[in-house]
Q: What sequence folds into this?
């Protein structure tokens, strides 16, 4: 992985942060992206630079098409091209609401941030990957996204991510001949500080909701992403991979 460049959206905190550290440790130059968390992004950039690789942070809102174009152009300029794209960023409204209660702005923001933004950034960076005949694209979904099930109170988010499932599979087929793989990683309900923790930090910590019995961590997700990005993983493409500990995040009934 030495000398490869990775762009990770929404990487100042959480799962994106942990993924950035993992790929930086593998020798990748890292382009971080943040929307408002500048201080966190700059601190992380300093940590990754200490690993002996290049690192830069670029502000951009993935739900805004002009920002997506600017982010892609700047990421390519910084290190001469982007080899790996991890589309981690994606707005999520934790408050439970039926679709009729969503504001128009929330609907547009969720669709743009979770589907259109990822598609546009892929589109912006694909020409360079094709030219080099090597690339890795990783999208983020949610547990069991490939089933396209009803998810009450999450209608817009679920629609965007299940649309991204189809796009992931299609793009994987279209780009395979250019040495580009496209996969989706679907984290379980990993919350708060656990998004940045290692597996060793949660061993022995009980989680009654998880069939595995422990909470999920950022390392669980980042390890899968890192594996998909390895040169030897070129035969793995078009996959939707759950990293959930067996948890089904979708409840079959609506309760208020």
A:
């Amino acid at each position: 992985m030495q000398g490869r460049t990775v762009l990770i959206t929404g990487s100042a905190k959480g799962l994106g942060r942990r993924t950035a550290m993992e790929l930086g440790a593998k020798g990748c130059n890292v382009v971080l992206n943040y929307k408002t968390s500048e201080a966190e992004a700059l601190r992380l950039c300093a940590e990754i630079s200490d690993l002996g690789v290049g690192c830069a942070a670029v502000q951009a809102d993935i739900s805004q098409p002009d920002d997506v174009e600017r982010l892609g152009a700047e990421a390519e300029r910084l290190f001469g091209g982007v080899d790996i794209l991890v589309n981690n960023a994606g707005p999520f409204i934790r408050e439970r609401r039926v679709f009729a209660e969503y504001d128009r702005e929330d609907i547009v923001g969720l669709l743009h941030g979770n589907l259109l933004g990822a598609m546009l950034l892929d589109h912006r960076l694909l020409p360079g990957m094709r030219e080099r005949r090597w690339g890795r694209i990783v999208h983020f979904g949610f547990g069991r996204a490939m089933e396209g099930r009803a998810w009450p109170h999450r209608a817009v988010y679920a629609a965007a991510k299940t649309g991204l499932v189809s796009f992931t599979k299609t793009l994987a087929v279209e780009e395979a001949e250019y040495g580009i793989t496209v996969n989706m990683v679907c984290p379980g309900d990993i919350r708060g500080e656990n998004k940045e923790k290692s597996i060793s930090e949660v061993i022995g910590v009980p989680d009654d909701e998880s069939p595995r019995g422990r909470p999920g961590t950022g390392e669980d997700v980042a390890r899968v992403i890192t594996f998909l990005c390895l040169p030897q993983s070129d035969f793995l493409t078009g996959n939707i991979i759950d990293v959930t500990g067996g948890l089904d995040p979708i409840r079959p009934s609506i309760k208020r």
User: Anything to note?
Assistant: The longest helix spans residues 104-132. The mean pLDDT is 95. The first strand starts at residue 5 and ends at 8. Helices lie at 14-25, 38-49, 65-79, 104-132, 155-175, 218-229.
